[in-house]
Amino acid sequence: MARPSGRWTGGTLTARDILRPHKVADAVFHPAWIPPSLDPSIDRLKRIRVIAGGVASIGVYTVFAGGFDFTELLENALTASAALLVLTPVTVGVMLLVWRRTGPLRQLRTPLLNSLALLLLFIGSVVALALFVQTVNATHNPLVIIGVGITMMWMLGFVARGAFRVTGNFFGTGAVHRCLPALLATVTTWLVAIPDLVTGDLHGLGLTLGVVFILGAPVTVTGIALLETGRLRRRYGIRLGAHPAGHAPAPGRVPPMPPGPPSGHPHVPPQGNPFAPPPGNPYGPPPGAPCVPPQPHPGSGFVPGQGGGNPYAPGPGGNPYTPPGLQPPYRP
């Protein structure tokens, strides 16, 4: 559960990406130390949970209450950030008291500090965006409006993308426990919605729409969180009440296959009979045979391959098997 080696962004951020706030937000708010999801189905559940949680955290009901108000949206974001600053540490603290019964907490210190740093970084970004908006609204200097306005627009994209990221990984608490992001999302959405119900502040939507929009997101997030934790328990044996050190190691990613040949099937072994003899006659003379065919006897007139003459004719170049000084008994 310790943080792997490497920088916060994992070395994926380049100088050209600074001009693209969504790239910077992806690298900053989904750092390299956050573990990947165990399977695609849990990823899909997290995306649905992000959408449902955005209904409560952003306050979509303000759109129906009388038009889109950016100032009110920003106030809701600041309120949600303050709630996160309080609710997240309290919820994690309660779970630490549960986990300490079955294992030590020292090994969880590094991922907890990383998650806290990510939480503070996001809250600081929301506060900085609010300050930029107030500066633009309060000043009448065109140069300040242009300079700060450009920065404000960059920060708006940065914070919006960052909110999407931290809602999915819930500030990297999955590095502490796989079930912790689902629990924190459920607790946060309910504690944000309950005050509106208790005070009766339905934001001018009426009772029916107010209850639907205020309770719709917590109920949806809770149902998806139960599905997510249920799949983690059934497929991987990960339980919320169990210490993270007691979980079986999650299956790692399959390493990529080595590149195959430019054509054909990369995983088919070479065809052919591995027991076949080498091409050619294995019993024949090797290339450049040292054995020279017999040469014709001098004077016989016989040339191998061309005919002519008798290779066994008598005489100086005649039959090599005739004793010297003897003549054959028959003459033609």
What does this protein structure show overall?
The structure is a single chain. It contains eight helices and no strands. The chain is globular, with a radius of gyration of 42 Å. It has helices spanning 21-29, 40-59, 61-64, 70-99, 109-138, 142-169, 180-199, 206-236. Helix 2 packs parallel to helix 7 (180-199) and helix 4 (70-99) packs antiparallel against helix 5. The protein is mainly α and 332 residues long.
List keywords for this structure.
332 residues, mainly alpha, globular, disordered N terminus
Q: Report the radius of gyration as a whole number of Å.
A: 42 Å
The count of strands amounts to: 0
What share of residues are in beta strands? under 5%
How would the global form be characterised? globular
Query: How many helical stretches?
Result: 8
Distance between the termini: 110 Å
Uncertain regions spanning at least 5 consecutive residues: 1-6, 251-256
Provide mean pLDDT, rounded. Answer: 75
Order of helices and strands: HHHHHHHH
Judged by helices, strands and strand pairing, the structural class is mainly alpha
Largest sheet: none
Q: Work out the helicity level.
A: 40-55%
